[in-house]
Structure formats: C-alpha cells, structure tokens
Amino acid sequence: MREVIAINRKYVSTVLAALFGFPLYLSIFFDSRFGYSDFSESSYLISHTILEFSAIFIAVSIALQGWLFFKGPSSAKIFIFSSAFLAVGIFDFMHILSFRDMPGYQVDFPYVSSWFWLSARLTETVLFVVLVSRMDKQPNTPDFRQILITLTILFTAGVSIIIFTLSPILPPLSQHRELTLWSYWIISIITIVHTVIFIHALISIRKGLHHDKEYIAPASMLLIFSTFTSLSQFVITDWSNFVSHIFKVVGYIYLFRLVFIRYGERPFKELEDMSATYKRLLNSVVEGIYGIDKEGKVTFINEPASRMLGYREDELLGRIGHPIIHHTKADGSDYPMEECPICHAAKSEEHTYAPNELFWDKRGESFPVEYFTRPIYEDGQAKGTIVTFLDLTDKKKLESLEVQHQHMKHEVALAASVQQSLLTALTNYPEGVDIGYLSIPFKELNGDFYTLYPKEREISIAIADVCGKGIPAAIQMTMMKYAMEQGNPPDHALTEINRFSNQHMDDMSFITMLASTYDIETRMFHYSSAGHEPALHYHHRDRKFSDLSTTGPILGVMPEMDYQSKRTQLDPGDFIIFYTDGMIERKENLDDNNKIIKECFLDLDLSNSAQEITQNLFDFINKRQPFPIEDDQTLILLKVENRETRV
Fold this sequence. Notes:
Elements: H1 2-10, H2 12-34, H3 41-69, H4 76-97, H5 112-132, H6 144-166, E1 174-175, E2 178-179, H7 181-206, H8 213-233, H9 238-284, E3 288-293, E4 298-301, H10 303-309, H11 313-316, H12 322-325, H13 341-348, E5 352-360, E6 366-378, E7 381-391, H14 393-410, H15 415-422, E8 433-440, E9 448-454, E10 458-466, H16 471-484, H17 490-504, E11 511-519, E12 524-530, E13 535-539, E14 544-548, E15 566-569, E16 575-579, H18 595-602, H19 610-624, E17 633-640
Antiparallel strand pairs: 1-2, 3-4, 3-7, 5-6, 6-7, 8-17, 9-10, 10-11, 11-12, 12-15, 13-14, 13-16, 16-17
C-alpha cells in the first residue's frame, strides 16, 4: 500500500504540468479563429526576448550545477545532460541575437536565427535521449569533467561556425510564418522522440522505477506542447509563438529542478541522514564524547557530554574547550593549556589516557573523570583529537563507602562506640521545630538506625531497621549516614543505599528505611519509604492520624530500584512520629499495627517538649505491652511549632 501511494505521488508533477498545458494549448485554437492576441511589433519583440532569455538563464544554470557539483562517483548520464545543456543555452542566445527585429541586427542572411533555434531543439532532444538511457555507469576517467566541458565548447563553437559559414546556402525553415515541408518533418521527429520519452517515463513511474522520471515526464510533455504548437497549426502566429516559449521555459524549470535535486538536495539529504545516524549513535553511549581541532576549539559534542558538563551544544561549539571545562587542577591551581594532555594530543597526534582528572561544569563545580584521546584524521591528515570521558563521581562515592566499610571491619573492637557516634544527636535544633528521639538496643550493638541532620533551612530525618545485629549492622549504618548527609532528596538517597547494599552486603542482609526532609520555612515534609513502618502524622487541629508511607521494596534485595517520593503540609502543633517495628511487635502478639502508638499518644500532655513526649510515649507503649521486648526499639518525634512563639 505504501509503495502504491509513493508511486502515485510521483505523478503529481505530470498532472500539474498537464493541467497547466492543456488549457494554454487550447487557447491557440481559439486565437486562430478569433485573432484576439495579435501583438504589436514592439510587444512581440519584448515578450519574445524576455522568454528566450529566461530559457537561456535556466539552461546555463543547469550546466553550472553540473560543473560545480559533479563528483566522480556520480552517474555519467546526468552529468553529460547537465553540462552539455550549455550548448542549448548558447544556441538560443545566438538565436535571439540574430533575430531580425533585434536592435543592432546586422546579419545579412535572415535564416541564421531559425537555424540556431533548430540546433538548440535538436541538441535538447539528443540530451533527453541520453538522460533516459541506461548509461548508469560511473565515469572512469579522472578528468571526465574537463573533457566533457571541452567537448561541449568545441561542439557549440563548431555548430555556430558551420551555421554562419553556410548561411548563404541554408534553406529557410519557414516562409511567411509557415513551416517549410522538410522543417515540418524535422520538428515532427523531435515531437515523436519527446513523446516516446514521455511514455517511457510514465511506464517507469508505474513500475516503481521512477528515480528522476517524475521530472522528466512533465518536462517532456511541456516540450511536446512547445513544438506541437507549430505542427498543429502549420502557421506560426504571435500567440502560438508566445505559448510555445512559455512551455519551453516551464519545461526547463522542471529540468532545473531535476538537476538541483540530483546535485543539491539529494546529496545533502543523504549527508544529513548519515549525520543524524552518527549523532544518534554518539548520543546512545554512556561516555561523554567531544572533539577539538588543533587550536583546541570544540568541533562536536554528544548529549551525554553536554549533560555532564551542563552546557548546551551551541554554547561549546567553536569555542576553545580547555578554559571552559579543564582550567583548574585538583589543588586549585591554574591548569595552563601548554600543560594540558588533551591540547597536546590534538597537536601531536598521540593517544592519551588520564585515569584521574577533573572537569568543570557550567555551575563552576568540578567532578572527577577519566578520559581517553584519539586523533581525528581527514584525508590522511590529523585535524584534532576525540576526547572520551567518564564521570567518576558515583565510582568515587562507592570507593569512599568501601573504604569506610574496610575501616569498620578492621575496628571490630570499637564497633559499639563507632555505632553510637553515628546516631546523631541534635543539641541545638532550628527555631520552629522540636525533636525528641530515643533508641534502645536489644543487644550491645543496635540494629536500628536514625540520623537527624540539619542544613540551612531544612532537617533530614531518617530511621531504619537493619536485618541482623552486631558489626554488619554498624557497617551498614555508616553507609546510610553518609548517603543521608549528601543532601540528596529522600528517594535518591534510598536508591543509592539500595545499590550499595545489594552490591556489598551479604545476600541475607537487607534494610527497611524511611527517609525524610522537613523544610522549616514552608513546613513542607518530604518522605520516601523502603518497606519501613509508616510514619504517623498527627493533625493537631482535628486530633486525627494519617499514615505516611510510599511504595518501595526493602533495601539490598534488587540492584536497581526506583523509590517513590511524597510530601505533606504540616501545621503548627502537628507531630510526625517515626518508629521501628520493635515498638509495636512481639512474637506472641497477633496485633502488630500502630494502633497502640496512636492510643498512647492521645493520652499524653502534648504541651511538653518533644523529648519529654518521646520518653513518656516510649514508657506508655511498653507498659501496655504484655509480652517481653525482643528487638531494638527506636522512636523519633518531630513537633512543629510557630517560629514566632519559640522561646
């Protein structure tokens, strides 16, 4: 179906030419009967001259396109057609110069002009035959263009000399505006040839072998109309001559379009498609890739490189890259271009590898990279170098976490004290919040983890329950504290912890965790959960509770997981209660939901400080539990206060 539609589209030019040509051609018959278009001598000369010079201009343009844009691998026939079309333009030019009514007319023999016209039509017909021939081979001669140009000039000059030399004995092509019999037959043969070419072009389009035929067909049709105007009437009138020239000009426009597509649009479209393919390939890789010339100017850059550097493509192209992205060393000192291995490689054609360097992004922040350079060659000459680099930020973070992990393994004896130091305690919290916390380990080392980390205008609060106790739990807490203190959003922090836990921890080890940030100015609470017990939001105004949780698996089970993030607006007097499962679960207890926390909380005096409320809530819960404690217990309370009323 698509092939049929594509073929039908190729008929559009022919149909348009027919719709243009038939009404104009029919006007000749009306003119022969009513004579409404007899031109004055000056009008006829002006219109004739304008149309002839239009055709000459297009013919010369067709030839110039062939000369300027011909490439060796191109088909020989299209180049022969386009470049030799210069002869058609020159013959028409000689025809108009030797026309008897032209100013300065000096030719003694009036038949010269018509013979130049006939030479142009015969040359045009022969070139059409070449155009539809099967001469698709590529020229093997290196100087094919120069040879063909020379032959075209010699042919044009030779025919012109012959016409001028034999002009005294040349027979007339028309007498009293009527065609002579033998010129009638020559024009008939030209018309028949164009008709055969037109039919051949239509058949090729019908078979799907159209290629250039969608332009050849309408051009042939219009040139048939051009010559047939004389044959159909046998008498050349002012209007038929005018219409004939219009057909010729429009037909030449189709030929110009054909040559333009072959030498202009089509190669550039192929080049554009190839460039788009290469660009997609460059953008599909993980590595950042950019190229520089010998002066250090950026010649291209792929999307990963732009994304890592923070620059748009147009902000770097044509600019020297070193002062923008590689200007400062790790110690803060300037990095001169003369010492830069990348700039040196662009000039020396050497391969370079740097395992530990710094690049600088648009924000003025550095990030660690490793990069490779390879020379760029064009026609055997080095034109610069390609730089391929990787952002090592995540790798460095993992290495840092691994180092901490190793340190913890070597300090087994100090595990308890290290763990205690990790459980962050806020002695001075910002105005507008009050935080209480309590964490009681079931054994010497705590399997629960919490961190309270203040920043400029917000506080990060996280609570977690690590599967297992002892030294492995302490090591995992190190990693969680580090991740939370990087300033990432809660869901990003969980993603990073999950990746590390899955890669570096035992298969039986996993973590439930709830990470959050509280914006003190806007009182907006952001949170994300990895299978942890839901936090409780106590609404002071309504004396009701809301469970705060998100969908997300526990940490350490799958290597790559995305975690959901939510937010809720807090009001003065509201509370957020964080807890681990040790606060609500007992082995013999069948009811392990947070109902007991809600009931105990409503019995408390909420005007006390957050730390007092936390301690009282902890005591109330354990008093109401009939079964013994068998797990670590952690409780955190965030109390929202009016900043103006905080004492």
